[in-house]
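Whether sequence alone determines local backbone shape is best considered at the level of individual chains. In the encoding step, the backbone of a single protein was reduced to a row of integers, each denoting a local shape. For completeness, the protein is quoted in full, as a sequence line and a line of structure tokens.
***
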Amino acid sequence: MPRLSVIIPVRRARGHLRECLESVLSQSFTDIEVIGVDDGAPDGSGLLLDEFAARDDRVQAIHLPAGEGPAGRRNAGAERAVGNHLLFLEGNFVLLPGALQAVADALNAAGDPELLLFGHHKRSFRGRPRPTRSLELLHELPAGPLTLADHPELLDVAQVSWNRAVRRTLHESEKLAFGPGQHGERMYALQTLAAAASVAVLPVACVEHRQQRYLPELADESEPTDGSTPLQLVEAYSGLMTFLRDRPALHPLRTLLFERAAQELLAGYPSVERRRRRYVRSVAEFHRRHRPEGHRFPGGARGLRPQLIGGGRFGALGALDTVLAVRRTMRSVPAAIRARAKRTLSARYYWWQRRRPLDRGLAVYAAYWNRGVSCNPEAIFRKAQELAPQVRGVWVVSKNQVDTVPPGIDHVVPGTRRYWATLARATYFINNVNFPDHLVKRPGQVHVMTHHGTPLKIMGLDQQDYPAAAQGLNFDRLLQRVDRWDWSISANPHSTEVWARAYPSAARSLETGYPRNDVFSTATAGQIAEIRAALGIRPGQRSVLYAPTHRDYEASFTSRIDLERLADALGPDTVIMVRAHYFYDDAGLPDRPSILDVCDHPRIEELCLAADALVTDYSSVMFDYAALDRPIVVHAPDWEMYRTVRGVCFDLLSGEPGDTPGAVSTSTDELARIFLDGTWNSPENEALRAAFRARFCPYDDGRAAERVVRAVLLGEGGAPGGR
């Protein structure tokens, strides 16, 4: 029995079907069957199914009588399937590379759930692939297993058949089926969510949804069109509620799905142009038959319209809508005028300020999208105060981060008049990410891109071949931002090569090392002891910093280590400091004395100084920490998925000197053994660390910030490398 059954119903897909089928059959995961279903497609799509079935025994071609429609094609494919999970794919869509392996891995990791939801990209006709709201929602959900009752936000994931894997036993035991018409697929998707006792999510784009050009002259008269009217939407939801009613185990979901249906039926009311009274009567009948006992409408004004349409009060509903429309119009005019005036005044003020001379003694600093004073820009700022005091620095800081700015540091908030004046007149711009697109670079202004990590994962234009990594990045705009750079700070020759490929521009590469790492060479034993004491680390206690990276396909922090199990194994003489990536708001760590939550600590450099060893996966912190010449352990249980989905520059786990910084683990128990038997600091791993340090830390001597200041602000030479 194959692991996955991929069902492809086809109708007028001849021009895209070959690519669709090849995208499935070329997947690295091969334990599949492919079932193509044709019901007499007039473009000969069925002939292409026969061609593929003849050359690949994993493909079956099913030919139905003409006119079965989308529901008939999908249901026939599901009836023929024998795989453990069913996946549906439209004939003009494609599976993205690695999709089926990711699905299979996610199913295994979640314990074979009854339903797996995965992400997709959407490509408009003649457009480019873009990430979708559904993909964002999947990032925000825990991995699972989930249920609809506990996570009603699952209803906001696109209600289609081709973004899910449905366990076949669930499909058969619950008699799931596609209904007729345009709403049948949505109702099937809702049935799967309601009936599944376990739902897992995979926040990775697996399907590219390709919109086709609409050609009304090619409308297929033999294709059923029922289900396309508002009244038939009422019938479709009535069928869903009957599905729930006939299954007592699903009764707790009736209120949730009734409210969703009632909300959509109410939202559809304004679009009904003919026979509105009949539509209101149909919705009222739906309420009478399916409204759960004890259900109450919201109180106050919010519940007035639902009560009116649910009660069939057509006249009162129309009158209320008229009053509300007039009220909205009266309120919106002043707000729109104010917003437009503010934008116009800001643009004109910025334009006027750009006509004034540049201030040769003014530098603008920012870091991490205006999150505060930190990283390479801060180290350059501090050194500039010492070596180039004639160049005063002003930081751009978001309004909600102003309280984090250290005393005595000048700053501006985006959108204010002083912000626009500062952007217009400053000479130097120093940031570890790109400045906003609204910044207009004037002749004579100098932009310094410091970056904020040595690249292991692919970056910039290299992401064009990794859509899950690109996340809808506009590469044309990226190049426009890169063209503003005058200097690109590099930590090592590897970074120089990657930045030149990923961000092709005329910017000069300045191989100075990373200024933020200067402290690793200059910190004294006394300063390190103070940092450890402030963190609560006892003298003589071994401290391990666990700092995993961000995964683009995960919305919340997921520890790949059983932290409590590791803490128990290492004992009270070891403290584990956990530092989740700053993209994650809450790490949800266990409350244990030997587990320190340092996610909100303002300086990662201090955490590195306090740590006797680093445990990480693919975070660039490993390259910084290597400058300390302390043990590094790579914990990489999902390396193959990460390198496939995110893309990497080199094989971190090759074991070759210069690639791998130390010991490698793939499980919590293996990680514990590495620390218990001394492998973490063995001579073999010390040799690997030395080669890694030689490759990635050649300039870390405590003077990187000085070299940047001398080259950029003082116009001197002296950088170890660059062009």
In short: DSSP finds 26 helices and 23 strands in the chain. Residues 522-696 form a domain with the Rossmann fold fold (CATH 3.40.50.12580). The chain has a mean pLDDT of 89. The two ends are 59 Å apart (CA to CA).
